[in-house]
Specification:
single chain, about 90 residues, alpha+beta, TATA-Binding Protein, five-stranded antiparallel beta sheet, about 40% strand, globular
């Protein structure tokens, strides 16, 4: 991924890569096709010792509290699905 790169997913989510710090974080815009404006999503990895890492999702500028809850559930489901690889 390169800074400035545009993307669109099969679900209709679109945005732009804003920051990439390899092995640390990525920051991007995130816009569902039915949203008026984009939110900002940051995904971080945080080292917790020699063999543990925390994966963190932070999303801001969401349209309302309902979308906030929807996105919170989405990222929790994403984390749960990633646990199957551990």
């Amino acid at each position: 991924m390169d800074v400035g790169q545009q993307y669109i997913t099969s679900e209709g989510v679109s945005g732009e890569i804003r920051v990439v710090n390899q092995y640390q974080n990525i920051r991007l815009t995130w816009k569902n096709e039915n949203w008026v404006k984009s939110s900002t999503l940051q995904i971080r990895t945080i080292s917790n010792g020699s063999d543990k890492t925390t994966l963190s999702f932070h999303q801001e500028n969401l349209p309302d509290i309902n979308v906030r809850e929807e996105m919170k559930m989405r990222w929790e489901e994403t984390l749960n699905s990633l646990r199957t690889f551990i």
